[in-house]
Amino acid sequence: MNISIGNDHAGTDYKFAITEFLRSKNITVDNHGTDTNNSVDYPDYVHPVAQDIVLKKSSFGILICGSANGVAMTANKYKEVRAGLCWTKEIVELIRQHNNANILCIPARFTSIPQAIKMVEIFLDTEFEGGRHQKRVDKITGCLS
Question: What's the domain count of the chain?
């Protein structure tokens, strides 16, 4: 499995911890995030992750910034992306089960690193339920050009 990860300055420490966790599970990680705490523009780090999803270079993506709103908004501009902003494990389960999310967006200012790692684990271990949810997921991209 290949995972693409991106972050702005608020998520650097989270990115390093999540990357270490993923590699311990023998998951390949493509780092598209900043490696410093210097202020950067988050869209610059979102686009490569979203493009990896679109081009099927990665199975899933992870994006981290302060609130995770900006990264989620940017990623969801891509027709093939379903990015979900999560701050609890229950929300993570639902974005996978009901929305077939392919990018997890983590708000670094509202979660701890151990909590974020647990959310990543749940994200990867939770399957899409399909069924009645599939027709809803199919309607998501209907408004995009």
Answer: 1
Catalytic choice (9, 32, 65, 105): 65
Q: What is the CATH classification number for the domain harbouring 95?
A: 3.40.1400.10
Beta strand segments in the chain, E: 2-7, 28-31, 60-65, 83-85, 103-107
What is the pTM (predicted TM-score) of this model?
Answer: 0.95
For the record, the structure tokens of 40 come out as 């950067």
| Per-residue pLDDT of the chain in tens (145 residues, 90 and over written 9) | 999 999 999 999 999 999 999 999 999 999 999 999 999 999 999 999 999 999 999 999 999 999 999 999 999 999 999 999 999 999 999 999 999 999 999 999 999 999 999 999 999 999 998 888 998 888 887 655 5
> Is 98 an active-site residue?
yes
